[in-house]
Amino acid sequence: TRSQMNSQNQIQRRFSFEFFPPKTPAGMEKLQTVRDELATKCPDFFSVTYGAGGSTQERTIDTVLKLHNQGIDTAPHLSCIGATRNDLTELLNLYKENNINRIVALRGDLPSGMGAHGELRYANELVEFIREHSGDHFSIEVAAYPEFHPQATNAEADLINFKKKVDAGANSAITQYFYNIDAYFYFIDRVEAMGIDIPIVPGIMPITNYANLVRFSDMCGAEIPRWIRKQLEAYGDDVESICKFGEEVVSEMCSTLLQEGVPGIHFYTLNQAAPSLKIWENLNLDALVSKA
Ligand code: FAD
């Protein structure tokens, strides 16, 4: 598998940056600055997350349309949990009318206390629904979990469930973030053995804040390897050292991934430009992006 990936090294890779929809006008202003900085890198697309259960939905739409109209393709994330078919149809119509051509299709997670599960239960059903709605209009991204989804009954079942999304018509996948490279390549080997050949782009989370990273990783089932955790712990409140170490570790990891022929990188920016840009510079990614 790795040699196959290596032989694809000449293939053009794709780069993307993910944002969350800001809550306040000040947050939107800040995102505009971040967007402008990252736009200089000519990414293939931006994406904007979406809160299941209503929390950020309007803000996602507003942010997506605003960014998309500034010249870089912007993909809304769309989750099906808690939504009706009517809700989804309306959103898909709106995105199609506004020339949005890529969607990140997810099941989503309901905020605790919200009981209604909606009409579609899993992301593969959402992919199917989008294809029924508008054929091949949208390029569909789905989520992949090299360290397995926290609710998966077992590893095997999670792989089979991933395949259901691909069979339903997903064009490519973005992974949950990870710091164990071997988990990613093992996942690739396993899904290739199942006949899956869509690009599976590593999702990369820069390290800038230890407490947040630990909290988030516990929830989403990403492991922070012990040596990274121990080193970050040792830095305590020394934010500068945390960021410097994080930048080194993540740049090194991305460099290995690229050498091994991954099809691109998706940055979880958390609406900050600097951490992703530093990694970008360290990897000299300008050289890989054609600025036509
Ligand atoms: P699914 O693929 O449906 O999988 C969910 C679980 O159900 C897994 O354990 C799987 O094994 C199991 N399963 C799947 N299909 C079936 C089936 N047919 N039958 C039985 N079991 C099944 N969350 C948000 O709320 N908003 C976002 O914008 C957002 N963006 C994300 C972007 C990326 C790139 C990633 C990796 C995650 C994102 N998430 C987002 C988080 C995501 O919504 C959660 O991880 C959620 O718990 C699962 O979503 P999914 O699409 O992977 O679900």
UniProtKB/TrEMBL annotation:
A Pfam family of this chain: MTHFR
GO cellular component, one term: cytosol
GO BP terms: methionine biosynthetic process; tetrahydrofolate interconversion
Entry keywords, A to Z: Amino-acid biosynthesis, FAD, Flavoprotein, Methionine biosynthesis, NAD, Oxidoreductase
Superkingdom, natural source: Bacteria
Pathway: Amino-acid biosynthesis; L-methionine biosynthesis via de novo pathway; One-carbon metabolism; tetrahydrofolate interconversion
Listed NCBIfam families: fadh2
The protein, known as: Methylenetetrahydrofolate reductase
